[in-house]
């Protein structure tokens, strides 16, 4: 029936009723907080382009995890800033590497209270800033797989709950699944960065992780922002190779990819709301142009509405606080 018999505003007038019929819900259980760990003790280096985020030494990282847990968020994603780098990223595979140290410390303090997702890539660990071994001026796919597999095994041995390869090399999920399975980690899930685009939204992250490429760019391995069909092919291949969860990155400019992924694959979908998305909101709010809390929540809800089951966001703590605060 049409107006005036049908009045859709009837269901919007009462806030309790609005909540009852909300089609999309957001929970602290949906959130993962990214963290950056660096060498030293009592180190808290501000990340200028990401207000409120820091490079933290292991001791302070553990304290930050306590703060995160207190908000209700139960998962973190770890990135490492090593003391030394090399041409191939082999430092990432060391059993006493910076992320491995962080995993041990977090597990010693919190046990299984906190889910640890370990990012697997070489860009933070190579002297050139690319995601793998360079041969003739480009990343060699198959040589890089060897390092990624070794890094994954080392992180699993340290106690990582989830392995998250973010490199976009062909075949890396299969290689990682094989090395994990062959070494007693068949139960360790893989969260694959399956549709990771060559995006301009990563700028602040590169400051945070000290991973800006020294030459060229990453367009030969990260995806063209113009492509959607290719994303479905990438995701399908990762699932075939053994991925347990698949990710779309970035989130806000790729909501259509999240929706298409959700509609196409019967898989848990992760969306990474990246550093540039966070920093834009922070900058606009600092200038008084937007209501930060309102926009933060609207963006997170849009990502869930698009189909994401899990959201990686630098706003995880703030979102959790809003969700836990009674609303009038």
UniProtKB/TrEMBL annotation:
5-aminolevulinate 2 binds at residues 275, 314. The keyword Transmembrane does not apply. InterPro entries: ALAD, ALAD_AS, Aldolase_TIM. It catalyses: 2 5-aminolevulinate = porphobilinogen + 2 H2O + H(+). GO terms for molecular function: porphobilinogen synthase activity; zinc ion binding. SMART domains: ALAD (SM01004). 5-aminolevulinate 1 binds at residues 206, 218. This is Delta-aminolevulinic acid dehydratase. It comes from Paludibacter propionicigenes (strain DSM 17365 / JCM 13257 / WB4). The lineage of its organism: Bacteria, Pseudomonadati, Bacteroidota, Bacteroidia, Bacteroidales.
């Amino acid at each position: 029936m049409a107006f005036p018999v049908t009045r859709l505003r009837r269901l919007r007038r009462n806030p309790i009723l609005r909540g009852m019929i909300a089609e999309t819900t957001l929970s602290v259980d949906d959130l993962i907080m990214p963290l950056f760990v660096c060498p030293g003790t009592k180190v808290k280096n501000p990340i200028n382009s990401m207000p409120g985020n820091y490079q933290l030494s292991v001791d302070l990282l553990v304290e930050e995890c306590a703060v995160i847990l207190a908000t209700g968020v139960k998962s973190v994603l770890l990135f490492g800033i090593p003391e030394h780098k090399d041409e191939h990223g082999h430092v990432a595979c060391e059993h006493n590497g910076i992320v491995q140290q962080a995993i041990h410390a977090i597990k010693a303090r919190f046990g299984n209270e906190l889910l640890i997702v370990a990012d697997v890539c070489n860009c933070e660990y190579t002297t050139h800033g690319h995601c793998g071994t360079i041969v003739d001026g480009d990343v060699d796919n198959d040589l890089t797989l060897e390092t990624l597999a070794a890094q994954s095994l080392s992180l699993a041995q340290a106690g990582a709950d989830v392995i998250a390869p973010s490199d976009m090399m062909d075949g890396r999920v299969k290689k990682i699944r094989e090395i994990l399975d062959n070494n007693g980690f068949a139960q360790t899930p893989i969260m694959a960065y399956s549709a990771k685009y060559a995006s301009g939204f990563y700028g602040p992250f590169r400051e945070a992780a000290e991973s800006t490429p020294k030459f060229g760019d990453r367009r030969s391995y990260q995806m063209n922002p113009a492509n959607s069909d290719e994303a479905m092919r990438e995701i399908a291949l990762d699932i075939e190779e053994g991925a347990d969860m698949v990710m779309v990155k970035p989130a806000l400019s790729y909501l259509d990819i999240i929706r298409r992924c959700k509609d196409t694959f019967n898989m848990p979908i992760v969306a990474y709301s990246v550093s540039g998305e966070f920093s834009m909101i922070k900058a606009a709010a600092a200038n008084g142009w937007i209501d930060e809390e309102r926009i933060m929540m609207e963006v997170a809800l849009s990502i869930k509405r698009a189909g994401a089951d899990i959201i990686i966001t630098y706003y995880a703590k703030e979102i959790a606080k809003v969700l836990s605060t009674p609303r009038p």
